[in-house]
Every structure is written in structure tokens, then in C-alpha cells.
Amino acid sequence: MEDKTLRCLQNKSPRFTLGSVGPYDIQVNSLNILMRDEQVSDEVMNSICDILSKDRPGVVHINCQALTKILDGSKRAKSHYFLKNNILERATEVFGVYLENGNHWSFFHCNVDRRCITYFNSLGETEWQCQAIAQHWSAFAASRGVKGEWDLKTTKHNLQTDSVSCGIHTLAFATEFLKAGGFITSFQCPVIQQERMRLSSHLFESLDRTKKCGICAKNISGRKKMACTCGAVLHVLCAATPMCYICQEDSNPLAQISLPASDTAAHSADPDVLVETSASDEGSALQQGWQKRCSTQCAAAA
Ligand SMILES: [Zn+2]
Ligand SMILES: [Zn+2]
Ligand SMILES: [Zn+2]
User: Which domain of life is it from (predicted)?
Assistant: First the structure.
């Protein structure tokens, strides 16, 4: 992955869908925000966790929308319409990211057989947070047939020193924790900007770019197709030259093509969440988007 490709994204239409990871669509803007000094968006958090769960049999990723409801203690999380009923049956480990107070990312993992939870918060883990998480997870697990007491452990780590990098700390920890099979005793987050670039290029390389046309971004199925040299699949009818929107030089008039109106894809639907959330439901901060900074509330909690 060349940095050049990532850098050129700054000049591309922010809403253009680059590709997908599982059920999550990634737009130009998703990656630009990941590279900049800003809060990481939920589709990026979900995608990178989805990538981390691949090739790890028994390791189940729960998306941030669902996990946040569970760990907030939402009544709806225990309902049988929420997530697949047997989600814990096939799992030896479950993990995901938790959006606290609608603006702060943290990491949750549990080993189902050992009834052991690991919680990581880049602002530090308070006693009351640990208790609430253990209690809410235990109630959810019991509703799915996994009963018993859960232990919660934390890891010694450096603290976040700004108010926007919790997502980066969280993803860096998730990567190291899962690679080590859960056996880490301490964690030091890499230099933030380097980690942003590593995650961006890893995410870009992991994108499935065969489901949507690399020029018009509409579904590829059922029409004559071809491929750009980068691997992106294109409609033959869209490709005046055989080059996707991202590979086109910005001086090329083709780059001026009009893009389809995007259907507010920032929060893509997830098939695991069977029932749409209503605005009155708990955790509606997810629908409203979060403030751009970790809240003083969560900063004070540290
Ligand atoms: Zn935060
Ligand atoms: Zn097309
Ligand atoms: Zn291309």
C-alpha cells in the first residue's frame, strides 16, 4: 500500500464508497478522518474489528451499536429480537468496541469458557465502570444461556493525552490483544499519527472492492464488468477508460463525474441488529452522532 494512494483521497469526493468490509461500507471520508486528528467513525471501528475477527475461529465480533446497548445495560439488549439468539453458542471469545457517553471509544473482550472480561479505556478504567460493565455483560450473557459470575481484568497501559485519539488507542490495543491471544500484561500505544497511517493502509488493503462499481459506486451485479489495475471492479458501461475513480488523476476530466446521491451511509445497517432503533431508545447518541471530543464527563472519569 502506497501512502500516495491514501494521500490522494483528500482530493476525492468524501461520500464516494471505496468498498466494504463485511456489512460495513467505507467511504473516502471514513479513511480521511482516520488519517486526520479526529475521532474515529463507527464504520471504521467496526470494520477493523471485523478484520481482526477473520481467521480466528470461535472469536465473535459484536458491532459497536449492539455492544454499546449491551454494556449500557439497555433493556432491549436482552430482548430476543436483538442479535442472533445463539450468538454465544458458537463463541469461545467475544469482543468489540464500546461507545461510552456517545463520544468515547473503549475495548471489550470476554473469554466465554473462563468467564473472564478484559476492559480497556485509554482514559483509564474506573471501579464503577468496571462494575457496570461486568454487571451488564453478565445480564446479557445470562439472557443467552451463559450463566455464572464474570471476572473483569484490566491491563497496565499509558493514557491518552489528547481528546480525540481514544479510537486509535482502542484499535491498537485490540490488535495487540488479539494477536497475543489475550495474554498481554502491559500495553504501550504506538505514536498516534503512525498508528493512524498503519490502520488506514491496513483497512484500505482489506476492502472488498468487487461489490460496487469503482466509478459510479452502484451495485456491480447483473451488468457487464471489468477490473481496474488496482483490483476495483467496474461496470464496462461506466469505464470510458479502464480506471477506477480513485486511480484516475485529479486532472483527468473523468474525475469530475457526478456521483450518486449517497443514502446517509455513515451508519450502515447491520444484519446482526434485527430491529431498527428508535430515537427514544437508550443509546440514541449513536444516531445523533457524537461530539468531536471525548466528553469532559468521560475525561473526568479518569
Ligand atoms: Zn474518547
Ligand atoms: Zn458503474
Ligand atoms: Zn483503480
Answer: Eukaryota
